[in-house]
Amino acid sequence: MSSADEAREPAGRKRQFPLLVLLPLIVFAALAGLFLFQLTLGNDPSKIPSALIDKPAPDLSLPPVDGIVRNGQPVAGFGKADLLGNISVVNVFASWCVPCRQEHPLLEDLVERVDGIQLIGINYKDKPENARRFLGSLGNPYRLIGADDAGRAAIDWGVYGVPETFIVDREGVIRYKFIGPLDPESYRSVFLPELEKIRSGG
């Protein structure tokens, strides 16, 4: 190897070294940017785009969850026809979902507080006995509950993960989507105003 080659080899290594040093910094900056983006969304998931907003709800028919009752009567499944003529709040939930348990009192408050709406559940990838136990211990605010054992309905509704809650107008059109669990602040300051706007025809 000539002296010129020896001189070039260390220089080449020096050029590669800064890239290795910068790589963790680049990864950290990307993760920090993602975290900041999520923070700026705050409690307003309407900032997350959804292809289904202002589009008809999926045309599907879900069977009931076996053994679930409300006021002593079996709770039926639901299909597209059940969304017509009513303002519907469609909530995707599962017994194994901890945030679903946390938001549940707000769903019960919703059906007591707001007249003229129906609360419908999509029970996502759950076992019937677990769903029965979940609602048996917390109460069942749902008028209808469809069993989504394979998760196909959730895909059709564009669900990112449970829980998610949709507002559907009287024509069966999805007007609003709340991603993640409702908490008292987002329920009061975001969800209820959106629901009232849709109820009043806004």
TrEMBL record:
PROSITE patterns: THIOREDOXIN_1 (PS00194), THIOREDOXIN_2 (PS51352). PANTHER family: THIOL:DISULFIDE INTERCHANGE PROTEIN DSBE. NCBIfam families: dsbE (TIGR00385). Residues 51-196 form the Thioredoxin domain. Keywords: Cytochrome c-type biogenesis, Disulfide bond, Redox-active center. It holds the Pfam family Redoxin. InterPro entries: Periplasmic_diS_OxRdtase_DsbE (IPR004799), Redoxin (IPR013740), Thioredoxin-like_sf (IPR036249), Thioredoxin_CS (IPR017937), Thioredoxin_domain (IPR013766), Thioredoxin_ResA/DsbE_sf (IPR050553). It is found in: Cell envelope. Belongs to the thioredoxin family. DsbE subfamily. This is Cytochrome c biogenesis protein CcmG, thiol:disulfide interchange protein DsbE. It comes from the Bacteria.
